[in-house]
Design brief:
heterodimer, A: alpha+beta, five-stranded mixed sheet, four-stranded antiparallel sheet, 20 helices, 27 strands, 31% helix, B: alpha+beta, seven-stranded mixed sheet, two-stranded antiparallel ribbon, 9 strands, 27% helix, globular
């Protein structure tokens, strides 16, 4: 369900820090008088030019659209007006009203109340004093809009406050003026408890920002996140103090994470709301309240820094062509800048562009180039076939890694990749993912031995005579180094005696061919070599011997049910009959037979005894003795029918 | 019993395949540390202090060493390479990277990435598109359709994401991120962005494995279980 996506933290390589926005199709449509695109066209175009559409879902006669908003666009586009502007640009259809063109005029008003900022986590705080006595009910159109995005109705003032947030993207909070003397924004001490207006109890840390009553120190809210119960607005509240502010994005992100509270306000503050937008938001808020029968009576602002001057960006058609690889015509650039609503001067091929009032993310030439190319469409950029323009250098470590891999695999070793995180070590990480994964490994042997045990247990299922594995990996001691580790282990149920010396000799033999001499040998089943050191002794390479790739693999998930082993020994007349016996076993054991592993051969009285270990496994259930017993009896009978003796 | 041949890990095989594709195009392979200084993992890549990825939640910071971490991408190696080499630069960096995330069937705390960097006098977005289309068709099949769309990364501008659709896919599948290297990144490594420009891209090797072999759990790649590994 779409709102589950909204509240779930979806983390993915590209999307970890994108913000999810929820929009009503009809609400977006209301900003346009004509030719608003259908939902499919809207979704496809936004996907290509602007933001990834996570999902859209039919809801009565509307659609709910969930978008992944890119971080620099979040302050503007996590709102219906902001997204409508983007749609206006992409589809070249004009908005029917102007937004973010006029600033609030503070000179019209007296102060609303005292405001103090004693934290560096708040750059601008505005408090409006608004008389809401004439606003008896939540206006019809606001009820409709909030319902369209599944927002609950609370009371007229809170509903208007929410509407403002979803319409223009400015978080704001209403305090009951009758119980608040003034506002101070300060840091929490750390350790105190705060109860939200929905009765959630959270413990605070010293990085959290508190909104308190400047007259009596009473806590009114958790800054940037949620208000407290005490000063909350109810039906019948006549006068409010409306907070319109911005807070430090990292602090709000931290507060949200540590308290577990995520709100529509905290999401927007976490995206970094520039203080330059506030005066435009205030103009809208003033107009809206007055339209609804309210009256702004006072306004106080505290600003920790002045708004930044907007930068001018100079772009030439040559800059565009050089970066992108095709020519854009003057007309095309003019058209796109108009669609974007940017002010500019054009002189020949040179454009001097002022940002629009909200685009604080367009500061340098490359930002502007991106705007032009994305609006025009990345599909219009050709794809140049790559050509080889340099002779590559061969990375020694990789070249020898391939050589060693090829050599080891040729003698039955298989490569594993194990975890860097272990239970013990010298260096450990902050906030590990698990208690036994705190430390960085100092060697490969611990991981290899664990892997050896696992594969030893499954050895018969795998048809292994022995477990032979190796790994290349970085380990962390005084220095970070690359190690090569090799491990040999017996298969469970087989002889524990391994001829390590013979295996060592074989390894040395295949590596000698490649000009590689490994120091040391197996110790307690593991042979670990400092590969970084070894490389210093080896000569440079002039080409890679690449590994081969299996492209047509039909991956089958291994069964989670245990396998069962049964041994069978048969006296044959000669070794030549082995193939026949194996064929017979195959045809008479059913589909549960997964392996026929040779176990033993010996000659006695002119006959040859072959012993096999049969491996049975089901994909759907644990096998019982009876079922296997039946298969074995049947098999033994068939063998006897042919004339062989079963031992 | 005749000994069967062993096998490389499927990630190694994929690395070999991808290195071979780029080796033929003249790209050199670079390598570097997994345990890295925050400068090389963040600052040099225009990921400023205050960016969410720098916080303690998503990155493995080393206890007791306040500016050391396990790299979250192999871009650290690209930065080091740019500091030591003048353009033209054609490099790829395969390697293990680390993200401090809850693990599940599509997320692991360690996985493998393959990054590419191409910096020269006239490398354009059109070159980026062509190179990536070439790579994806080689990796996933000649009939793979490739789509580029708008995205954002602090270290590239413009930034794009690439989706693919193979014959068997109903929907587009996101596969990698890329873009034109941000001028601040070039400057930080001593390269003049007025003289040189180029592209960078990064693809999760695990993701390619999951797509190509229809795997259902990324964690299987690191359990060292031969019931899984021997199939590749």
């Amino acid at each position: 369900m779409i709102l589950e996506i909204y509240t779930k933290q979806i983390r993915d390589f590209c999307h970890s820090f994108n913000m999810k926005g929820i929009y009503s199709y009809n609400w977006l449509n209301s900003f346009f008088d004509k030719s608003f695109p259908g939902i499919d066209k809207l979704s496809d175009s936004l996907n290509l030019h602007s933001f990834e559409v996570e999902e859209f879902e039919k809801k009565d006669n509307d659609y709910l659209i969930c978008l992944d908003i890119l971080p620099p666009r979040a302050p503007v586009c996590l709102s219906h007006v902001g997204l409508a502007k983007e749609i206006s640009t992409i589809f070249n259809i004009p908005l029917n009203k102007k937004y973010f063109e006029n600033k609030f005029d503070f000179s019209k008003y007296e102060e609303s109340a005292e405001v103090k900022i004693s934290t560096d986590g708040c750059d601008k705080y505005v408090l409006l004093h608004i008389d809401c006595s004439e606003i008896k009910d939540t206006p019809e159109f606001i009820q409709k809009r909030l319902a369209s995005i599944d927002q609950k109705l609370i009371n007229p003032i809170v509903d208007i406050s929410n509407y403002i947030l979803f319409e223009i993207g400015q978080p704001n909070h209403a305090f009951d003026k009758s119980v608040v003397g003034g506002i101070e924004v300060k840091n929490a001490s750390g350790g105190e408890t705060f109860v939200t207006l929905s009765d959630e109890e959270v413990k605070l840390s010293k990085d959290d920002i508190l909104i308190i009553d400047s007259k009596n120190g009473k806590v009114l809210g958790l800054g940037g996140v949620k208000g407290g119960k005490f000063s909350m607005v109810e039906s019948g509240t006549n006068e409010i103090l409306l907070e319109v502010a911005t807070f430090d994005s990292s602090r709000i992100r931290n507060t949200s994470r540590l308290t577990g509270l995520t709100t529509d306000a905290s999401i927007r503050y976490s995206a970094d709301l520039p203080l330059e937008l506030i005066d435009y938001s205030l103009f809208y808020i003033e107009s809206l309240f007055e339209e609804l029968g309210g009256k702004v009576l006072g306004a106080t602002k505290v600003e920790k820094r002045a708004p930044e001057e907007k930068a001018e960006v100079v772009l030439t058609l040559q800059d565009l062509e050089k970066k992108i690889g095709i020519k854009y015509s003057r007309d095309t650039v003019v058209e796109i800048l108009n669609k974007l609503g940017f002010n500019y001067e054009v002189n020949g091929d040179e454009f001097k562009v002022m940002q629009s009032n909200e685009r604080f993310d367009v500061n340098i030439l490359e930002d502007l180039i991106e705007e032009i190319v994305r609006v025009d469409g990345y599909n219009n950029v050709p794809s140049n076939t790559p050509k080889k323009l340099m002779t590559p250098k061969i990375l020694k470590s990789l070249g020898y890694r391939f050589k060693i891999t090829n050599a080891l695999t040729s003698i039955g070793f298989s490569e594993v990749i194990t975890y860097t995180f272990r239970e013990k070590g010298k260096l450990c990480v902050l906030y590990p993912i698990a208690e036994d994964r705190c430390f960085l490994r100092e060697d490969l042997s611990v991981g290899l031995k664990e892997a050896g045990k696992l594969n030893s247990h499954n050895g018969e299922l795998l048809g292994l005579g022995e477990v032979r594995i190796f790994e290349f990996g970085n380990v962390f001691n005084k220095l970070e180094e690359i190690k090569l580790g090799m491990h040999v282990k017996y298969v469970e149920g087989r002889s524990k005696k391994i001829d390590y010396k013979a295996i060592e000799d074989k390894i040395k033999e295949v590596l000698k061919i490649e000009g590689i001499e490994l120091p040391g040998g197996f110790e307690d089943g593991v042979w670990e070599i400092n590969f970084s050191e070894l490389l210093k002794e080896l000569k440079d390479l002039d080409e890679y011997k690449f590994l081969s790739v299996l492209k047509d693999v039909n991956y089958v998930k291994p069964s989670k049910y245990p396998f069962v082993l049964r041994d069978i020994s048969v006296f044959l007349n000669s070794r030549n009959e082995e193939g026949e016996l194996i064929k017979l076993i195959h045809s008479n054991s059913g589909s549960l037979l997964k392996r026929i592993n040779p176990f033993d051969i010996y000659e006695k009285d002119g006959k040859v005894s072959f012993a096999f270990r049969l491996v049975f496994q089901s994909e759907t259930k644990t096998l019982n003795d009876e079922a296997i017993g039946e298969i074995m009896s049947g098999l033994e009978n068939k063998i006897k029918e042919v004339g062989w003796e079963v031992r | 019993m005749e000994r069967e041949k062993g096998k490389p890990h499927l990630i190694s095989s994929l690395i070999s395949e991808m290195v071979q594709i780029f080796n033929e195009l003249g790209y050199s392979v670079a390598d570097g540390p997994e345990l890295e200084k925050e400068y090389y993992n963040f600052d040099a890549l225009n990921i400023k202090k205050g960016h969410p990825s720098r916080e303690m939640w998503d990155t493995f910071w080393i206890d007791g060493y306040k500016d050391s971490l396990l790299r979250t991408h192999t871009s650290n190696v690209q930065v080091r390479y740019m500091e030591k080499n003048k353009p033209p630069i054609y490099t790829v960096v395969p390697g293990k990277v680390f993200r401090n995330e809850a693990t599940d069937s599509t997320h692991e705390a360690q996985f493998f990435q393959f990054e590419g960097l191409c910096i020269d006098k006239n490398i354009t977005l059109a070159d980026l598109k062509g190179t990536l289309e070439y790579l994806l068709k080689k990796l996933l099949g000649e009939h793979t359709i490739v789509r580029f769309r708008q995205s954002y990364f602090p270290f590239t501008e413009p930034s794009l994401e690439v989706d693919i659709k193979r014959e068997s896919d109903k929907n587009w599948i996101e596969i990698l991120g890329c873009g034109m290297v941000h001028p601040e990144v070039l400057k930080a490594s001593g390269i003049d962005p007025k003289e040189y420009q180029g592209f960078a891209f990064g693809i999760g090797i695990d993701r390619v494995a999951i797509l190509r072999y229809e795997l259902d759990d990324i964690r299987d790649l690191y359990k060292a279980d031969q019931r899984f590994l021997s199939q590749f």
